[in-house]
Amino acid sequence: MKGAKLNRADLSRAFLNRADLSDAKLINTNLSGANLRDANLINANLIGSNLKNANLIRANLIDADLSGANVEKARFGNNQGISEPIKLDLIRRGAIFVGEPPTQDSRVLVTA
Q: Which residues pair with 92 in a beta bridge?
């Protein structure tokens, strides 16, 4: 699916594990609950896409554009292309990073 034009498509809950979506146009695409684990999203355009509850663990996000994407409860971890500032922005927008050390901006709730 390299270079595919899937703008506004409904790919909710799609199994896209290891899919090659490099250079894909996924503007305003519904990817809620999709499994994008180990997917190649190099240079993918995900502007305004819905990634709520999606699994993006180990997805390659080099030069991917996540501007305005809904990342609430989307799971990230061990991703190429995610700098520390981008990671902090995604966390502020509701993303979850698993399998990585906490960032300096992470919050931990400790109960006695």
A: none
Residue span of the structural domain in which 99 resides: 1-112
Count: domains in the chain: 1
* Selection from 54, 53, 46 nearest residue 86 by Cα: 46
| pLDDT by 10s per residue, the chain, length 112 | 898 999 999 999 999 999 999 999 999 999 999 999 999 999 999 999 999 999 999 999 999 999 999 999 999 999 999 999 999 999 999 999 998 655 444 443 333 3
What CATH number did the domain enclosing 18 receive? 2.160.20.80
